[in-house]
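Class, carefully examine what follows:
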Amino acid sequence: MVMRMSGPHYGPIEMIERLVSFDTTSRESNLALIHFVRDYLASLGVDSTLIHDETGNKANLYATVGPRDVPGIALSGHTDVVPVDGQPWDTDPFSVVEKDGRLYGRGTSDMKSFSAIALALVPEFLARPLKTPIHFALSFDEEVGCLGAPLMIDRLGTDLGVKPHIVIVGEPTNMAVVNAHKGVYSFRTSVRGLEVHSSATHLGVNAVQHAATLVHFLTEIADEMAARAEPESGFDPPYTTVHVGTMSGGTAQNIVPLDCKFTWEYRLMPGADPDEIHERFDRFVEETVLPRMHAVDPGTGITTEPRAVVPGLVPEDGSPAEAIVMALARTNHTEVVAYGTEAGQFQEAGIPTVICGPGSIRQAHQPNEYIELSEVRACEAFMRRLLDEVCAA
């Protein structure tokens, strides 16, 4: 049965303009955008389910176009964007400006355009009988650790209907088909020492120096990982990387520091043991660093808390997702990327997943972020080929 639509219609560029106009920087609520999408879909006769975070200030949106009793194809996109603070923008980041064949604005490349183009074509999907449903899976807080999508993924196959049999994550790949990316595992380590006057260092426990010992240990692991390079993998660099991003501690030059904190991460090659590095780090803390600290004061300590766990996307050559998306993208090869996405989370839930979306990752997070209009047209053509794929004969 063909559904009748009476709601507003937006062209792809108009929808990009609408989504970019919402300031969904990760520190802000994304509900204004989510409610806009919900109301837009409702006006077309499509129901949405919102999955909120524990504060109620953010939400995922999941909606199905077509039959709900058969597995479908999910189009996954995150709604949050990175901050524009301190960046030298030439235009208002939250107002799309078209110039020289490009659309400028925060999120045009990363990654509101993919979702906008798909949403703009919903009336066309509704106008034709679908044998395979299309699911919209819009998430929050991808940019700060892929925190939102798991709340939605956990409900696939239950109250959200039949679990999709394919997921397409629309991160910017210039419409190339990506079947692998590294995992991202990040942590915050806090060192509590014993504060004394710097003339009596033997009576204190220097939190900064012990933290530096830990950072040096991570540097040694980083060198070891580089030595395990896999040149044939296609990754740049072709090995697991280990990185310390921030560090702070101490109060004055003449005081042995009481506290020091640092953040660190590793970006793991697909298929590598995700526990190896942090387990080695924990053993070094317990067997080497803490005994030195406790020898002076047993009240000192070290704690490490996970900040984000983003599983890698492992290649599944010949998977249904790879086969269909390669055909839709009109390519016969796949690529890999170094950045993390929600794709690995969907794959961990047992759903074949690939990444394919418009725009360039080189524009992501940059001032004057833009997407080429040619990329918008390519994605629009991709979506119309997808429409032909899911329609009944």
